[in-house]
Amino acid sequence: MLNSLSGRFLVLTIIFVMLAEILIFVPSIARFREDYLLSRLERGQIASLALLADDMIDADLEEELLRNAEVFNVVLRRDEARQLILSAPMPKPIYATYDLRNASAFVLIRDATARLFDTEDRVIRVIGNPVREAGLLIEVSMETGPLRAAMIDYGLRILLLSAVISVFTAVLLFLAVQLLLVRPIKRVVGDIQAYAANPEDAHRIIQPSASVSELREAEDALQKLETQLTSALKQKERLAQLGSAVAKISHDLRNILTSAQLFTDRIEMSEDPTVKRMAPKLVGSISRAVKLCETTLAFGKAEEPAPRLTKVKLNEIIEDVFEAEQLTRSDGEISFVDDLPQNFTVDADSEQLYRVISNLVRNARQALETANQSGEVRVSATNIQNAVEIRVSDTGPGLPEKARKHLFEAFHGGARKGGSGLGLAIAAELIRGHGGALILERSDQEGTSFLIRLSQAK
Description:
The chain is of the alpha+beta class. The protein has helices at residues 5-53, 59-69, 105-117, 145-197, 213-268, 273-300, 314-328, 350-370, 401-405, 422-433; strands spanning 73-78, 81-87, 94-99, 123-128, 137-143, 310-313, 334-339, 345-348, 375-384, 387-394, 437-444, 447-455. The protein folds into three domains: 5-170, no CATH class; 203-246; 306-455, Heat Shock Protein 90. Helices cover 57% and strands 18% of the residues. The radius of gyration is 50 Å and the shape is rod-shaped. GO terms for molecular function: ATP binding; phosphorelay sensor kinase activity. Residues 215-242 form a coiled coil. It comes from Lentibacter algarum.
């Protein structure tokens, strides 16, 4: 129970209330001592009035009056004359004198505390003002034993009352915490556990209902988090299903392309000059398509092969990419510029690098066509220390803001209507496999520029 929130509140409440009562206890004891001494002065004054009314009181009656007043003697000052009205033998000499007429709170608390810790029975003199102005002052002598016993009895009763109040207050606070905090927290925990059992079920998302503002804020934040998580899980499920479908399609498409690859052997035997010129490119395109299908199947199995790094002539890759794009471009005036040094080589996987550059060039061409404007797509490359930088730029309208935020995320970074955003995500992954990076350098009204940075062997 002490490990629970309500249990700790219960213990802390008892401790704090007891501390508060202790702070009240000391002045209460001082007040009780003052009242006790004043009552002895009042009793002594009443006994002295009896003697003043009849001077013939015998010694036995005088002794009884002093015993009832619980004092040894009474001195009353009237008309500047100090008179010993009643007197009895004192067992001890007077230890101290206490004047209650102008005593401050500090003095009363100090004297009361000293009396509690002094266990010896002493005789003290107490001075005060007579009741109803029956003189200038009155003083009595008395023992401290009964005073200390009365103070201890009063203190014990105060402590017992404090304990009862503490327990009662703690129980009330315990019930309040249970009702206002513990139950709502347990309900939230139950909602979390129910949601964790089936996070894809939107009906299990928490519905905020707490009346405590802080807890309501926590429920609102949890509802938002669970809603986002459920949407993400549903999207992951759709992506998994899509991946399975793509793997199946790639499998069948690979078989079809393999058959088509066999027919290209006969085409290469043709004597037609145009056919002879186009046949190698057709064979290359079909080979790349087969390779893409195989890679897609491997990706579906989480077995994406590592790039096979060789010395690749970048000029030949750029030439193949430009020729493929020129065949598919619309009637717009789009020029493709190869701004590479002659015989520029790079350490890379030729097939993967072709896919990356082809993706970037195709995106640039489609951006210009979508904007219905003429322009230029340029590819350049430079050697920088132990790295190669390949830059693909265009003079198009630039990427939309949404596309820039999720540029390399699959199904989020599509720059044109109907695009899936897969191209850039795949390209970035392939470059990372080379130990490099694909970076968006700029994208504004003057165009877009992507930078491919590849590390090279020393």
